[in-house]
Amino acid sequence: MPVSSPARMPPAGPRPVDPRREAARVSPPHAAVLPDADPTPAGGSAAAVLRAVLDHGPVARATIGRATGLSPAAVSRQTADLISLGLLRELPGSQRAAPRAGRPHVPVDVDTASHLAAGVHIAVPMLTFALVDLRGRVVAQEEIDHDGDPARVLALISRHLPDFVRRHRGPWPDAGHRAGTATGGALTGSALTGSAATGSAATGSTAGPGGGLLGVGVVSGGLVDARAGTVVEHGPLGWRDVPVAAPLRAATGLPVHVEGHARALAQAEILFGDPRARHGLVHLFAGHVVDAAIALDGTVLRGQGSAAGGVAHLRIPGATERCGCGGSGCAQVTLSERTWLARAVAKGVIPRPDIRLLAAAVGAREPAALALVRVRLRLIGRLAALLIDMIDPEVLVVTELATLRWPELIAEVQAEVAAHSRSRSAPERVVRPSSFGPEVLAVAAAAGILGAVHRSPRSVRPRLARTPLPPGQLPGRDHADPTTPSGRAHPAVAAAI
Ligand SMILES: [Zn+2]
């Protein structure tokens, strides 16, 4: 039902996975295209309307008007356009009393069935493939291992992506020819091509005509030049100046947006997480690598060399671990999962340095494993306190393994911030875990593409069908598949990122 309050907040904790989303079906991947996803704010009224519906939907047009300050005529026009693009939908069967003659009062919501974004997260030793809807909900997710060779990794992505899409949403080139039922008058007048797809079990909606994959987001750790679409440097993978966007764009025929891991996590939080993140966010990631992203007024800072947010060699008060940089107590060496896995092995908590084993031990509430994790979270809290004092954000989001699975452990970070921060901020309000739980890598991988849509909804354009990607190689390459699909459930961020 429509919500009149403009201040409804999404739940703070991780959202449960809805297995019915696996049943979601959308139309083919050839109907929409974005310009290269550039972070430039844009979109004007259309973006404001889409944002209002994302925040408050299902919502009446009158409420959109109040939330955006747009006139009723402007709201009606923008809403109609967004419906025609498959970005909004009217709720069937919810016709209500007209506030005045001739103005139907039909709630609208984000259309989560017509378009999806694909995401690929490159980590060590695995790739995470994801399909994510316009609300940032993960429709499907798979992980496969890789051997780290850049050419073979790119070939693997180009080969696996269409298979992944086929498995979860139907044939790549011609899914739109499957019969469906478009009811309720939604999405009429669409400029998109193709026939209706089947409805989404998750939303109870009926997919509209056309639509499909909006593009492919690729996220990697290390130093990433998003404008050039290049992984500049990725230490754990040994990559240097690896072009990613251009070869994948050529192979898939889809827009490809490449982003650094830390900034993608921040972008996901801004789009779909805590609303305060839009105003001032510090996102702190602690995995095998330790890095941060800073966003003000919805824009994630990049820096001249794409290196903003590099906190790896900030010194954590009280820490003494020797760092490869020659210093000691650096955040990277102090907090890295590598360090803590070695410690866990030395203490006999786990038999070998495997993050999945440590996660299982924490899950089993083994005291020695929990104690290690709590000490690490306390040290993360000291780094968080430094960042809060420097940046004074509205919210600081921590993404690391333990709090993704057990968000209540964030209290350890909050307690340490309270003890070390000089800021007057209340840590229990400012410091929180990721909004996405174990799905965080999947959401982050697609965040660049989804962010481009939400910033510039009119960049979604119909185009002629094409067959973008025969299930094969990158042009001119011929590599053996070095991987085996692994159906096992990795704990998110269980890899060197
Ligand atoms: Zn260092």
- Strand ordering within the main sheet: 5-4-3-6-10
Please give the largest β-sheet: 5 strands, mixed
In percent, how much strand structure appears in the residues?
15-25%
CATH architecture of the largest domain: 2-Layer Sandwich
CATH topology of the largest domain: Nucleotidyltransferase, domain 5
Decide which structural class fits the backbone. alpha/beta
- How many distinct beta strands? 15
Domain count, please report it.
Answer: 2
Helix content: 25-40%
The fourth-level CATH homologous superfamily of the largest domain is ATPase, nucleotide binding domain
Ligand kinds: zinc ion
* Order of H and E elements: HHHEEEEEHEEEEHEHEEEHHHHEHHHEH
Q: Indicate the low-confidence ranges by residue numbers.
A: 1-41, 173-211, 462-497
Shape category: globular
- CATH class identity of the largest domain: Alpha Beta
What gap, in angstroms, lies between the N and C termini?
41 Å
| Rg (CA only) | 23 Å
Supply the number of helical segments.
14
Q: Could you tell me the mean pLDDT?
A: 78
